[in-house]
């Protein structure tokens, strides 16, 4: 695959350990150029800038901007020859349908899909009993804990850059356990629809909390078999094939409603 060109990005920043591990792993089988945020841009979703600064970096380019900025700048000017976009490896899982629009990691893959370039978003699940939710933005996960995610990404890159996988999906959302927990099994999944966001008020302050992480730590998430979160709870690698345009099937009832709109 010496002729395969990969644009590597993330939302944790170009110097994040997860990106470094993927860069080293994928460089064995492809020409990899990192086009990633200069600083942490976690949970910025599909935020985009009017202009960005691109600085040379030993792995490619550090962008003063968001993950979406990186993909637009990368595919338009910096790495226009890219055959695939890989986004990750994120420090923390991106599980469930409610995370799809929030995650900078996934948003980079979505943006790539609009360019017509297939993409893989990769995240590593950090168990709460090893790293508390409050400290996840500050922790340094050892490089070896990303090994399972990196191996899965290399495998998927090799197997999907040709063939029909991306005829039926715009991008893949991959979640892997840390290496010390991994069973080595990969399963096809769908995003969970379990939603447990909550808010509590203390005077003028309203605290927002995703209670799903605590439920996962206690092993009490009511997910069905076949969901991404259930796979991770079983220490398996979850692969969810997804589409980017967010369209729906033909809606007969809504069509009737629009036809009934009163004309002036």
TrEMBL record:
<dbReference type="GO" id="GO:0046872">
    <property type="term" value="F:metal ion binding"/>
</dbReference>
<dbReference type="InterPro" id="IPR002828">
    <property type="entry name" value="SurE-like_Pase/nucleotidase"/>
</dbReference>
<feature type="region of interest" description="Disordered">
    <location>
        <begin position="243"/>
        <end position="264"/>
    </location>
</feature>
<keyword id="KW-0378">Hydrolase</keyword>
<feature type="domain" description="Survival protein SurE-like phosphatase/nucleotidase">
    <location>
        <begin position="6"/>
        <end position="191"/>
    </location>
</feature>
<feature type="binding site">
    <location>
        <position position="90"/>
    </location>
    <ligand>
        <name>a divalent metal cation</name>
    </ligand>
</feature>
<comment type="function">
    <text>Nucleotidase that shows phosphatase activity on nucleoside 5'-monophosphates.</text>
</comment>
<dbReference type="GO" id="GO:0005737">
    <property type="term" value="C:cytoplasm"/>
</dbReference>
<feature type="binding site">
    <location>
        <position position="12"/>
    </location>
    <ligand>
        <name>a divalent metal cation</name>
    </ligand>
</feature>
<keyword id="KW-0479">Metal-binding</keyword>
<dbReference type="Pfam" id="PF01975">
    <property type="entry name" value="SurE"/>
</dbReference>
<feature type="binding site">
    <location>
        <position position="11"/>
    </location>
    <ligand>
        <name>a divalent metal cation</name>
    </ligand>
</feature>
<keyword id="KW-0547">Nucleotide-binding</keyword>
<protein>
    <recommendedName>
        <fullName>5'-nucleotidase SurE</fullName>
        <ecNumber>3.1.3.5</ecNumber>
    </recommendedName>
</protein>
<comment type="similarity">
    <text>Belongs to the SurE nucleotidase family.</text>
</comment>
<dbReference type="GO" id="GO:0000166">
    <property type="term" value="F:nucleotide binding"/>
</dbReference>
<dbReference type="InterPro" id="IPR036523">
    <property type="entry name" value="SurE-like_sf"/>
</dbReference>
<keyword id="KW-0963">Cytoplasm</keyword>
<feature type="binding site">
    <location>
        <position position="42"/>
    </location>
    <ligand>
        <name>a divalent metal cation</name>
    </ligand>
</feature>
<dbReference type="GO" id="GO:0008253">
    <property type="term" value="F:5'-nucleotidase activity"/>
</dbReference>
<dbReference type="InterPro" id="IPR030048">
    <property type="entry name" value="SurE"/>
</dbReference>
């Amino acid at each position: 695959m010496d002729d395969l060109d990969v644009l590597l990005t993330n939302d944790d920043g170009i110097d994040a350990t997860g990106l470094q591990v993927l860069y080293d792993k994928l460089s064995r089988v492809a020409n990899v150029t990192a086009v990633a945020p200069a600083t942490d841009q976690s949970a910025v979703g599909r935020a985009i800038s009017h202009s960005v600064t691109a600085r040379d970096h030993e792995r490619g380019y550090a962008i003063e901007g968001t993950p979406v900025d990186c993909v637009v700048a990368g595919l338009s000017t910096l790495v226009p020859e890219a055959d695939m976009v890989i986004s990750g490896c994120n420090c923390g899982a991106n599980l469930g349908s409610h995370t799809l629009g929030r995650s900078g990691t996934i948003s980079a893959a979505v943006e790539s899909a609009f360019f017509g370039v297939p993409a893989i978003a990769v995240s590593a699940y950090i168990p709460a009993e090893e790293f508390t939710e409050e400290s996840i933005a500050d922790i340094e996960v050892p490089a070896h804990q990303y090994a399972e995610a990196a191996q899965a990404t290399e495998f998927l890159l090799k197997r999907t850059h040709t063939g029909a996988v991306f005829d039926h999906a715009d991008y893949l959302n991959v979640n892997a356990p840390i290496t010390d927990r991994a069973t080595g099994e990969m399963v096809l999944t769908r995003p969970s629809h379990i939603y447990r966001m909550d808010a509590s008020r203390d005077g003028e302050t309203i605290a927002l909390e995703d209670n799903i992480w605590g439920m996962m730590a206690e092993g009490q998430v009511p997910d069905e078999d076949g969901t991404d979160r259930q796979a991770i709870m079983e220490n398996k690698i979850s692969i969810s094939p997804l589409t980017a345009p967010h369209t729906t099937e033909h809606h007969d009832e809504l069509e009737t409603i629009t036809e009934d709109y009163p004309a002036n």
